[in-house]
Amino acid sequence: MTAKQVLSPDDVRRAVTRMAHEVIERNQGIDGVVLVGLQRGGVWLADALAAEIARIAEPVPHGSIDASLYRDDIGLRPVSPGSVSDISFPIDGAIVVLADDVLYTGRTVKAALDAIGDYGRPAAVQLAVLVDRGHRELPIRPDFVGKNLPTSSAETVVASADGVTIA
Amino acid sequence: MKHFRSIAEAGSEALQRLLELADHMAEVNRRPNPKVPALRGKTVCNVFFEDSTRTRLSFETAAKRLSADTMNFAVSSSSVNKGESLRDTIETIAAMGVDAFVVRHKSSGAPWQISQWTTASVVNAGDGWANHPTQALLDSYTIRTAFGSLDGLRIGIVGDVRHSRVARSDIEAFTMLGADVVLVGPRTLLPPTPLAPATACLDDVLPKLDVLYLLRMQHERMNESLVPSLREYTARFGLTPERAARLQPHALVMHPGPMNRGVEIAVDPAELPGAVITKQVTNGIAVRMAVLFDLLGSGGME
Fold first, then answer.
1. Nearest to B157, CA basis, from B144, B175, B141, B145
2. In what order do the strands lie in the sheet with B100-105?
3. φ and ψ at A163, to 5 degrees?
4. Considering only CB atoms, which chain A residues are within 8 Å of B68?
5. Residue A104 belongs to some domain of the structure
6. Which of B19, B52, B187, B211 has its CA 20 to 30 A from that of A73?
7. CATH code of A73's domain
8. Which of B13, B35, B36, B292 to mutate to test the interface with A (most CBs of A within 10 A)?
9. How do residues B161-184 score in pLDDT, each as one tens digit?
10. What's the rounded Cα separation, in Å, for the pair B124 and B134?
11. Contact (CB<8Å) B39/A74
């Protein structure tokens, strides 16, 4: 099957700008807001959102988290963690905006929520994803979505700053 | 990986993977709550037929930080004293439901023997004079943290190489990672078959070393007349203040512990800028977490 582009790089850029505005609007500013990208696919999105928020308002702390040691499928398939988690700011009392490229079953987000909890007790956690492709297996919903993309579970979605393709 | 019994058996790909995994574990250990749920429901049993405090505690801490349950078996308070064989001991513990055995034994090869009697994973925590692969892993990790890589580094291993499982595993690991290893010690304490280039003159190689690795000088070697006296040993092979001054400014000083102060190390390591001996201990937990996670958590059942 050939890959079909559903979002161009420009579309991604516009979606990120809109999501940055939504983050600021929802939180009535950026007080206490921190951005955490999910290793590996969400890190660029957290960086891009951070850059946009810095442009629109003020810079906010941003980092990344690797949730592979919290997954519920450990032992069922090979796990190879991505880059090391990097959270160099306090999580206690912060409004954590988790960022990931594609929201699918919700299991990675659940693992990330558990991981975040080991760094501290956030005031709130919100979820930003570039693509929501459905097929949730857990009661998890995104707060900020770049694009809702109905898919079949046989398809593969690749999302990056260079666009979104489906194959 | 099913077992971790020697560096040579694991191979360089596994070695690299474990070192990268150890970075993640070190990050876990730096957190306010240094514990992850990765190995919930797994049981790790420490079976030590030889005395050890640091290795056993390190493995126990590593297992607990991954949320595994731990059991400890010490020979001194066990049925081995009533004449139970090694095989019966292992099979009895295995019947209680163990996912990994961490084994230290005075006989070389014991971990291979034990893995024939159980379906659990076996981690070698030291067998005879042969292997101590997790020590080699933590030493490699400590050097890699300081220099970024071991490739091209000159590492001198000084002392009783012949009777040292630490030295054997270190030589394998350091060489596998691209370092140049030189062994230094009196001829009576160097291995009969050369494992790496060797010399009896520490002062010749000292100024060129990136890492000075001091081995523990065991007192019982004196009784075997392998060294004339401890004073003689210190004079020729000990790290004295004069020798410390001749080290390169970036050189690391390492020791597997327990240290014989005044023998192989005649300076206070706290005053040596390059001493990373306590870092080795800290890193030991991270690399042992990496090993346990790789064996029990990575879908590793081949």
1. B175
2. B69-74, B43-48, B100-105, B121-127
3. 120, 180
4. none
5. yes
6. B19
7. 3.40.50.2020
8. B36
9. 999 999 999 999 999 999 999 999
10. 8
11. yes
Residue B273 φ then ψ, to 5°: -60, -30
Mutation to test the B interface, candidates A40, A65, A70, A74, most B Cβ within 10 Å = A74
CA angle B117, B169, B3 (to 5 degrees): 30
ipTM score: 0.84
**Three-state DSSP class for A1?**
coil
Q: What percent of chain B has pLDDT over 70?
A: 97
Q: What's the CA gap between A82 and A40, in Å, rounded?
A: 6
Find chain A residues with C-beta within 8 A of B35's C-beta: 118
- Is A154 inside a domain boundary? no
Average confidence (pLDDT) over B185-190: 93
| Ordered structural domains, chain B, with CATH | 7-131+284-296 (3.40.50.1370), 133-281 (3.40.50.1370)
- Determine if the pTM surpasses 0.90: yes
Size of interface A-B (CB pairs under 8 A): 50
Measured distance CA(A66)–CA(B99) in Å, rounded: 25
Domain range for A117 is: 11-149
Decide if B32 touches A, using CB distance below 8 A.
yes
Q: Name the DSSP letter for residue B265.
A: B
Distance CA B125, CA B148 (A): 26
The span from the CA of B46 to the CA of B68, in Å, is 12
Whole-angstrom CA distances from B286 to B25, B44, B61, B254, B268 are: 5, 16, 10, 17, 26
Cis check: omega of the bond before B5, within 30 degrees of 0: no
Cis, bond preceding A150 (omega within 30 deg of 0): no
Residue A78 lies in a domain: yes
The verdict on B83 touching A (C-beta cutoff 8 Å) is: no
Residue type, B121: S
Summarize pLDDT for A66-123 with one digit per residue, the tens.
Answer: 998 998 888 766 666 778 899 999 999 999 999 999 999 999 999 999 999 999 999 9
* Total number of domains in chain A: 1
Cα separations in angstroms, B2 against A22, A79, A102, B13, B115? 49, 15, 33, 14, 10
Cβ(B115)–Cβ(B105) below 8 Å = no
**Nearest residue in B to A118, CA atom:** B33
Q: Which two tokens stand for residue B207?
A: 């100024």
Q: Distances from the Cα of B190 to the Cαs of B22, B178, B196, in angstroms?
A: 32, 22, 10
Beta bridge partners of B101: B45, B122
- A85 within domain boundaries: yes
